[in-house]
């Protein structure tokens, strides 16, 4: 069997958006997302059913799911597809960066400074949430920073209209199912219809959860009876933490670290080929080996000192100039958003907050 060797990563990315949380793992349909951008050629777009007919079918499905007629009247009557959503979905510009370049572009001095300030301001709450869910407060804050710029950009597009447009236009079952989940959220009374807003790809609130992730992981931390990931800091932080905990975050371990590699990579390439399964980022990292094995292969910490002696498995992620050994917790970050540029940015930003 010919195994692919690990080479430095180059990423084709739509610059304005990470993947919405929870769309990353092995979704049947591609979503507009970092590393998985489906540029739909208008010429290849499927023939669309007239929107009113399509919407009537959705309504029938929603009623069968137990969503009230009153909710559906409020959410769906007079709904029109949004041409801006179609345009953005079909015409995403892609830019190519090296992994290192992307991280440098995201983790600017201003971004790190703003996150550190926000972390200090919310430290008590972040730490309380962190200890309840066994996820570091600095990781929660870093995800909050990268997903919605500390809650400043959580999206202004009405989620129902956005998801209806994406589902109808591309006939993608993924978005249709997300639309039904969004209607369920409104029906439960967690958020008023008028306030149900998010990104142009349907990711909602400060953690940028897709509706299906919201139904699984959103938390009512402040105890007011609503899971408010749009306005409540407690609910936002707890929802992010719950997501990571459910994706296997282990409080006793960290995410990974930057390392130095030997100049001759022959032995490493033979011992640690790329993974062959999982979302795209998983297939861009090596199989896991024990830390002791990496030490034997000549890998050191970035400062040249030996790797820790812990009995842990680690995988190699290679950038152009920076390389990383990542632990199982890193896979929880990829579960939030399956892109190395994202997960490494979260880990590195969290390290900065700990200083
Ligand atoms: Ca709440």
Describe this structure in words.
- By secondary structure, the chain is of the alpha+beta class.
- The chain has a domain at 252-354.
- 45% of the residues lie in helices and 9% in strands.
- It is built from 15 helices and 9 strands.
- The chain has helices spanning 51-64, 69-76, 83-90, 99-106, 109-121, 123-133, 137-148, 159-170, 173-188, 211-217, 233-246, 266-271, 291-296, 328-336, 340-354; strands at 10-13, 95-98, 157-158, 197-198, 256-260, 289-290, 300-301, 313-318, 323-326.
- The protein has a 5-stranded antiparallel beta sheet.
- It is globular.
- Calcium ion binds at residues 220, 222, 224, 226-228, 232, 235.
Question: Which value, in Å, is the CA radius of gyration?
Answer: 21 Å
Low-confidence stretches: 13-19, 22-39
Strand content: 5-15%
Give the helix tally.
Answer: 15
- The side-by-side strand order for the widest beta sheet comes to 6-8-9-5-7
Ligand catalogue: calcium ion
**SSE string, helices as H and strands as E:** EHHHEHHHHEHHEHHEHEHEEEHH
Shape category: globular
Summarize, please:
By secondary structure, the chain is an alpha+beta fold. Helix content is 45%, strand content 9%.
What secondary-structure arrangement, pairings included, does this model have?
Blueprint lengths: L9 E4 L37 H14 L4 H8 L6 H8 L4 E4 H8 L2 H13 L1 H11 L3 H12 L8 E2 H12 L2 H16 L8 E2 L12 H7 L15 H14 L9 E5 L5 H6 L17 E2 H6 L3 E2 L11 E6 L4 E4 L1 H9 L3 H15 L1
Antiparallel strand pairs: 1-2, 3-4, 5-7, 5-9, 6-8, 8-9
Helix pairs in contact: 3-8, 4-15, 5-7, 6-7, 6-11, 7-11, 7-15, 8-9, 9-10, 10-11, 11-14, 14-15
């Amino acid at each position: 069997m010919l195994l692919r060797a690990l080479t430095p990563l180059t990423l084709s990315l739509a610059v304005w958006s990470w993947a919405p949380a929870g769309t990353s793992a092995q979704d049947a349909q591609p979503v507009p997302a970092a590393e998985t951008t489906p540029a739909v050629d208008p010429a290849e777009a499927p023939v669309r059913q007239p929107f009113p007919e399509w919407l009537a079918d959705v309504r029938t499905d929603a009623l069968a799911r137990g969503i009230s007629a009153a909710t559906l009247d409020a959410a769906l009557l007079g709904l029109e597809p949004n041409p801006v959503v179609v345009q953005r979905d079909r015409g995403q510009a892609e830019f190519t960066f090296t992994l290192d370049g992307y991280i440098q572009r995201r983790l600017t001095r201003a971004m790190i400074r703003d996150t550190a300030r926000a972390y200090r301001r919310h430290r008590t709450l972040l730490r309380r949430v962190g200890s309840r869910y066994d996820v570091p407060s600095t990781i929660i804050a870093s995800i909050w920073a990268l997903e919605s710029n500390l809650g400043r950009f959580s999206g202004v597009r009405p989620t129902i209209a956005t998801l209806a447009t994406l589902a109808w236009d591309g006939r993608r079952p993924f978005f249709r199912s997300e639309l039904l989940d969004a209607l369920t959220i409104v029906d439960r009374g967690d958020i008023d219809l008028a306030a149900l807003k998010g990104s142009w790809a349907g990711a909602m609130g400060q953690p940028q959860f897709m509706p299906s992730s919201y139904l699984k992981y959103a938390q009512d931390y402040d105890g007011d009876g609503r899971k408010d990931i749009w306005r409540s800091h407690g609910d936002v932080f707890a929802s992010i933490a719950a997501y990571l905990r459910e994706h296997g975050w282990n409080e006793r371990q960290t995410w990974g670290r930057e390392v130095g590699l030997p100049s001759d990579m022959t032995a490493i390439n033979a011992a640690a080929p790329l993974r062959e399964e999982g979302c795209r980022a998983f297939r861009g990292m090596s199989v896991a080996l024990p830390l002791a094995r990496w030490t034997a292969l000549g890998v050191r910490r970035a400062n040249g000192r030996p790797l820790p002696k812990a009995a842990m498995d680690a995988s190699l992620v290679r950038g152009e100039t920076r390389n990383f050994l990542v632990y199982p917790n890193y896979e929880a970050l990829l579960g939030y958003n399956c892109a190395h540029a994202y997960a490494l940015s979260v880990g590195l930003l969290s390290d900065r907050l700990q200083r």
